[in-house]
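thoughts on these C-alpha cells:
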Amino acid sequence: MVNFFAVVCAYLLGSLSFAVIVSRCMHMPDPHTYGSGNPGATNVLRSGKKLAAALTLLGDAAKGWLAVWLAVHFQADWHLNPSTIALVAVAVLVGHMWPVFFHFKGGKGVATAVGVLLALSWPTACICALIWLVMAFGFKVSSLAALVATLISPILAWYFMPQLSWFYASVVIAILVLYRHKTNIAKLLHGQESKIGDQSKH
C-alpha cells in the first residue's frame, strides 16, 4: 500500500503544471491558448516573458527531481521496493504529460524528465542537459535539441544508473518524451518547426 501511495503521490505532484500556474500568477494568458498550445517553458517563452519561462522550466524540473529524491531518500523509512523508485520516476512524468488537475492536457516532459534523471543519476542528467544546450544554441530549435538528448539518455543511463530498474525507467521516459514530440518530429521533417524565441501569434 505504501508503494502504491508513493506512485500516486508522484503522479499528483507531476500534475502540477507550472506553465499554467506561473501564467496565472503573473496574469498571463493560458499557455494552451497561444503558440504551440503546449504548457511548457518553450511555449511560455513565446509570450515574450522570459522570467515566466524560466520559472516554468525550474518548476517542472524541480517537481521531477523532488518526487524521485523523496522516494530515494525515504526508501528505507517507508519500506519502498527498489522498483518503486522506477515507478515513481515514470509516474511524475506521466502526471506532467497528462495532469489530472488540468484536464489531462500537459506538456511534453523535457524539463521534468531532466529533473527525474538528476535524482536518479546526476551524470546522466548533466550530460543530457549539456547536449540540449549545445543543440539549442547551435540550431535554435528546442524540439530538435530535446529529441537528440532524449535519444542519447538511455545509452548514458546504461552506464551511470546504479539500478537496472532505474535504467528501464529511463527507457520508458525516453519513449514517452519521443511520443509527445511526434508532432514536432513531423514538422522537423517538413522544415516547419519554429525556433526558440519566436513570438506567438494571438
In short: The chain has a mean pLDDT of 91. The chain is about 70% helix and 0% strand. The CA atoms of residues 74 and 80 lie 8 Å apart. The two ends are 47 Å apart (CA to CA).
